[in-house]
Amino acid sequence: MDVFTELSLVIVVAALIAGLMRVLKQPLIVGYILTGVILGPYVFNILPDKNTLSIFANMGIAILLFIVGLHLSPKEIKNFGVSVVIIGLLQVVCTTLLGSVLAYVLGFSLPASVYVGVALAFSSTIIVLKLISDKKELETLYGRIAVGILLLQDIVAAVALIFASSLSSGSLTILPFVLLLARGIFLIVAVLLVSYFLLPRLATFFAKSQEYLFLFSLAWGFGLATLYSKLGFSLEIGALVAGIGLSVTPYSQEISSKLRPLRDFFIVMFFILLGVQVEFSHLGGVAFQIATLLAFVLVVKPVMIWFFMEIAGYNKKTSFLTSNALDQISEFSLVLVFLGYRMGHVNVETVTVITVVGILSITLSTYTTIYSETLYKLQIPLLKLFEKRKSRRESSIVSNYDVILFGCDRVGYDFVKVFRKLGSGFLAIDFNPDLLKELRAAHINCEYGDADDGEFLEDINVTEASVVISTIPVYETNEFLVQKIREKNTESTVIVIAYNVEKALSLYEQGASYVILPHFLSGEVVAKIAEEAHADTKELSDRRKAHISYLNERRVLGHLHPTLANHH
Question: Above 70 in pLDDT, residue 561?
């Protein structure tokens, strides 16, 4: 077949398999890998020449890492929080060490064991963000922690790629890595200096043409990727650095959105190529290795994350949901092992094992994340056995409160400002230890607690409060809270939040006094502002100044809307 016919066939088959994956509610990545398997030598064998796919796959990886770099700006990194950084680093280090030892025991060579250990440490940013976003839970505490850990893993993955690039075939010496890392840091600093001092001056020139901005972005990304490859690094590292360089510019989000469709197309080829290279002749001999590593990813890795979060002071539900969301391996894992294979560090059996573990863990993780609330309820008795006794049990709890607020970050912040004047009559509830430290420092009456914990609700006499407000964006939590209050008190005011009309109406049926729908509420408020501005332009000017001051205050506190919903 000619190249055009070959690519057309690949795309048609990929579309058909992806359609089946959508019907089965599975990640499309699984469908792409299966496409490679179907078109490969073990089924139809109609892709004998892999050169074209390899070129497209390399372009896909480069664009993927370029977009990753666009979201790894210093502004994003500083918002991680100390606890998230510690949890993320401990998880990566411990998973890598345990995974490497396990792989070595299973019969992998020492270099392959290291690759396997590192590959098992990463979770899929694409899959996790997609699933959490679909559940409308990016705004929850566990959603933000999961995103923070994923971004930290991306940084560690970049270092791992540099390390892999520094190794000659079959060698695991440290000196080449140190020298290459030092040279890499120098090049990164040079790129950042250009980005900080030169590119902003050209911003107006770029912004005048969307088409040119797109072309410049590709030239910058592929150009630096090629330059880095010529200097002894991999294409992947060059693309990542190129993205980091543009992340400090005011048009990084614009570039990311423009490149995403291109990334989606080319990355399909990468996963198809992985599927083509799966060696089924080796599956019988590595079935036990696959099953063992899969169990490690689905059980040991989440337990490890849960344990570290418990130590950090998060409650059992936040710890469980976060660890449950990260129970798969990453697209980075596949890229890393593929790079190791290309450089001769690992054999095709290792690629096959990690690819199959990736397919199975991503597939199973989809279900565990979708049904995370059900799984949590089933495991509550077990989790309670290991949960630390929280300090709230030892604190003096006032018998009754006038106002109780659940969730003090972002939306809840405005309620804290309004009700803090009530003093001991106001109680703020949150299960983010870092946020509670800030509230206590501001002399605000607060407690560590979970709105899903019936015992805790009884401890604070939630049914006796005049006003109960929940800004927690989880429907099941708000439903439980409303039902718990209405069992004993039908007169109190209960205000909760929802993100779609059906769930808002359902909460009203349960007995909620008022349901906040942020998107509709903002439209209603803006409409009133526009009406006032029509009658009095000075009123709008005063409101504008006040709003700018308010937004600056929220920015200082780190209450920024997430910009990672479409992150790679």
Answer: no
Rounded to whole angstroms, how far apart are CA atoms 149 and 95? 14
Q: What is the CATH number of the domain that holds 434?
A: 3.40.50.720
With 0-12 / 13-18 / 19 or more C-beta atoms within 10 angstroms meaning exposed / middle / buried, residue 449 is: buried
Q: Which residues, in sequence order, are CB contacts of 555 under 8 Å at separation 6+?
A: none
**Number of residues that this document lists for the chain:** 568
Rounded mean pLDDT, 436-444: 81
Domain boundary among 318, 348, 383: 383
pLDDT tens digits, residue range 284-334?
778 899 999 999 999 999 999 999 988 887 878 888 889 999 998 987 788
What is the dihedral angle through the alpha carbons of 117, 25, 497, 433, rounded to the nearest 10 degrees? -10
Q: Does any domain span residue 541?
A: no
Rounded to 5 degrees, φ, ψ at 285 are: -80, -20
Residues 404 and 363 placed together within one structural domain of the fold: no
Query: CB of 240 within 8 A of CB of 68?
Result: yes
The residue ranges of DSSP E strands in 403-442, in sequence order, are 403-406, 426-430
Give CA–CA dist 559/478, Å, rounded.
22
- CA gap 315, 330 in Å, rounded: 26
CB neighbours of residue 349 within 10 Å: 18
Q: For position 98, what pLDDT does the model report?
A: 95
| Percentage of the chain exceeding pLDDT 70 | 79
CA separation, residue 39 to residues 104, 121, 334, 472 (Å):
33, 30, 19, 47
3-state secondary structure 66-121: HHHHHCCCHHHHCCCCHHHHHHHHHHHHHHHHHHHHHHHHCCCCHHHHHHHHHHHH
How far apart (Å, rounded) are the C-alpha atoms in residues 352 and 12? 25
The SS3 assignment for 162 reads: helix
| CA distances for 348 relative to 286, 312, 499, angstroms | 12, 40, 47
Give the integer Cα–Cα distance in Å for 248 and 237.
18
Q: What is the pLDDT of residues 489-518, one digit of tens each?
A: 888 889 888 887 888 888 998 888 888 887
The DSSP 8-state label assigned to residue 298 in this structure reads: I
Is residue 527 a part of any domain in this protein? no
354, 119 Cβ separation under 8 angstroms: yes
Neighbour tally for 437: CB within 10 Å: 12
CATH number for the domain harbouring residue 327: 1.20.1530.20
pLDDT in tens, 105-114: 998 988 899 9
**Residues 144 and 15 placed together within one structural domain of the fold:** yes
Q: How many domains does the chain have?
A: 2
pLDDT per residue over 142-164, tens digit each?
887 887 888 788 778 777 776 77
Amino acid identity, position 170: G
Q: Is the pTM of this model over 0.90?
A: no
Nearest to 435 by CA among 461, 406, 402, 395: 406
- Are residues 50 and 16 part of one domain? yes
Residues 353 and 445 in one domain: no
Distance CA 460, CA 397 (A): 7
Domain boundaries, position 304? 3-383
